[in-house]
Amino acid sequence: MEFTEIDRDDYCNLLMEIHRTHMPYGMFGKEKYPPNGVPLCDLPEEYLLWFKQRSFPKGRLGELMAHVCEIKELGMDSVFDPFRKANGGRTKL
Predict the structure, then answer these.
(1) Could you read off the pLDDT of 39-61 as tens digits, one per residue?
(2) Reduced to 3 states, what is the DSSP secondary structure of residue 41?
(3) Phi/psi of residue 23, each to 5°?
(4) DSSP codes joined into one string, 42-93
(5) Where are the domains positioned within the chain?
(6) Are the CB atoms for 76 and 49 separated by under 8 Å?
(7) What is the pLDDT of residues 3-39, one digit of tens each?
């Protein structure tokens, strides 16, 4: 499949949205990782796989988590490195 410029822009926007979105609840939510929770791109793969087995949350949060899970399963976690670098590195878990 050949990517067009629009596809690249959409993918870049998706990656930025993933990085800007934080886990709002649970063991990586804002109560344990104030003030916002852990960015979705820094969630452990095991945690995402747990959701994949039981079902991701409904709505956009679940869609983004599913994308992150797929990216991590494919061994492509490094696509988030430029975003992490711009924000001071990976979230310490």
Answers:
(1) 999 999 999 999 999 999 999 99
(2) helix
(3) -70, 115
(4) GS-HHHHHHHHHH-PPSHHHHHHHHHHHHHHHTT-GGGGHHHHHHTTSSPP-
(5) 5-86
(6) no
(7) 566 688 898 899 999 999 999 999 999 999 999 999 9
